[in-house]
Amino acid sequence: MFYNCSQLTTFSSDLSSLTNGYRMFNSCSQLTTFSSDLSSLTYGYYMFYGCTKLTSFTSDLSSLTNGEYML
Fold this sequence. Notes:
Layout: E1 10-13, E2 33-36, E3 56-58
Parallel strand pairs: 1-2, 2-3
């Protein structure tokens, strides 16, 4: 969805229905802040991989079963 979006710096939205976040923010190199309800997320494979500036992460990951290489 936002793969390799180099201008994205913050993200705050309702993703409460999201179950698969495969590479959703992968390589968003300027992303520093993420805040969202990810309570339904089960598959987060590579979701934030390459987000080297991500310093603030606020979310519920209670349903996550695969977070391999998530960050």
